[in-house]
Amino acid sequence: MTVVAKVYIVRHGETDANRQGIIQGQLDTVLNDAGINQARLTADALEDVPFGAAYSSDLQRAKKTAEIVLESHPNVQLETTEALRERYMGEWQGGSVARRTDPPPDLEPVIDFTTRSVGWWNSTVALNGDAADEELLGLDFEPVHILAVSHGGLIGSLITNLIGSRKLQAAEGVAVGWCFNASISVIDVDETGKGVLVSYADTTHLDGDVLEHNADVRLN
């Protein structure tokens, strides 16, 4: 396997809604002080990664996290996209997960949510593998390093579906579970567009209190 792309998928830092157990979905909430600090610690952890491309959900909590990470990468332009948004939760948005009712009629269907996230992967990341020129994959070849900042529900759904479709396999000892605020997941993509999940929701770069629940993730 020749790694032609390394993808660093980061979940946004903490928001007050995260702390309060509020269902955010596509509400445009902002990072709280803890979230900004988490983003800076994530930036420190990724400072030496030679990013060649960066993508983010266009929601503020993800976009701000990405901007902080890229402060030490001034030549990398951030591309925001609705495709990396969290699942739209309809009438649930803004309410407490503890008081949720039956699923609202305007909840984004799972199939649409899955199609959106996997479509982004296929059109953006997998192409880096498919487009690789075998003649260029020599000893001096360096993979492209890609930053993607999104949301807990989307990250978990995307990776689970990629594994289920055999476009991705988890490395030994790596399991998909909770996706924590400002956690980092790393995927190596080969020349065929398939990949290996090297790590999932790593928080070893963070210090202090890390939330172990997510109102949006519980509902996906």
Automatic annotation (TrEMBL):
InterPro entries membership: His_Pase_superF_clade-1, His_PPase_superfam, PG/BPGM_mutase_AS, Phosphoglycerate_Mutase
Name of this protein: Phosphoglycerate mutase-like protein
Keywords carried by this UniProt record: Hydrolase
Residue positions of the active site: H12 (tele-phosphohistidine intermediate), E86 (proton donor/acceptor)
GO BP annotations, alphabetical order: negative regulation of glycolytic process; regulation of pentose-phosphate shunt
Record-level GO cellular component terms: cytosol
CDD domains documented for this protein: HP_PGM_like
Residues reported to bind substrate: R11, H12, G13, E14, T15, D16, A17, N18, R61
GO terms for MF: fructose-2,6-bisphosphate 2-phosphatase activity
SUPFAM superfamilies named in the record: Phosphoglycerate mutase-like
